Amino acid sequence: MNKKILVIGACGQIGTELTLRLRQIYGVENVIASDIVKPDNDVVNQGYFEIIDALNFDQVEYFVEKYSIDEVYLLSALLSASAEKAYAFAWDLNMNSLFHVLNLAKEKKIKKIFWPSSIAVFGNNTPREKTPQYTVMEPSTVYGISKQTGERWCEYYHKTFGVDVRSVRYPGIISWSAPPGGGTTDYAVDIFHSAIKEQKYHCFLSPETKLPMMYIDDAIDAAIDIMDAPGDLIKIRSSYNLSAMSFSPHEIANEIKKHIPEFEITYKENDFRQTIADSWPDSIDDNNARTDWNWKNKFDLQDMTSIMLEKLEETIQ
Ligand code: AKB
User: Fold this and answer.
1) 184-210 pLDDT, tens per residue?
2) Does 80 sit in the ligand 1 pocket, CB within 6 Å?
3) How much is the pTM?
4) CB environment 209-229: b (16+ within 10 A), e (fewer)
């Protein structure tokens, strides 16, 4: 019998693609999507969908029991920029949704959890280039503090209660089908929409701000691969560094210009997200993930730019 999977936060940027891919692999009837909202899309219309408030333990437990869930992918979170504007709610959502699923796993009601962490766990005193797996971590954002704390709790629940929780530190995720929501790296998605609609983009980060990024298909592969890997290969139970590409607004604009020569980028000054971006790494060393469970990215800046422009041209026009 196939395992039963619950995706919490299934209508967000990662959840949308992840749910559709999980349904392809494990069968539509075995993947239950859930979110606090119910948009009119394939995640909702093509398979089981439930409204679940990730902060409501009883509700999460009810649906875990109703569908005899084996694995939970917990994706609900307030991202870096949004979290700065609603820090108490961000802390509540990012921490307590995690505690709910960790506690269900501790009670043996679920067998395995995927929970994403982020490059936001790093801070101003972290080495910026090829940031190592183990290094100084002094996050300066509410989001980063919640992700770092979540990592500590994941490791603690694994060590103390044997909970099988697996995690990766995502960089900025670039996708065309569902929009990102409230992150600092969102510019790298917005830029493609503006390039197609208006051939210009007003960027909220400065030209040389280099950040680690990843195309959505690689992000989905990472989640599914780490969940499928034999448990003894998962040596890190806080969260694995993960890397695919790194670029600045200037570099991505140049790549877009190869396809749309008239494209122009201008830069905003004094946006609060610049301070967040300045505290994050330029690039990430993900050797542990590559060695332990054979992680490999497939997409670089050139591939990703071509796909994004092609797909958005089909959907926007
Ligand atoms: C954000 O910008 O907040 C996220 C992240 C890097 O985790 N995309």
Assistant:
1) 999 999 999 999 999 999 999 999 999
2) yes
3) 0.97
4) bbbbbbbbbbbbbbbbbbbee
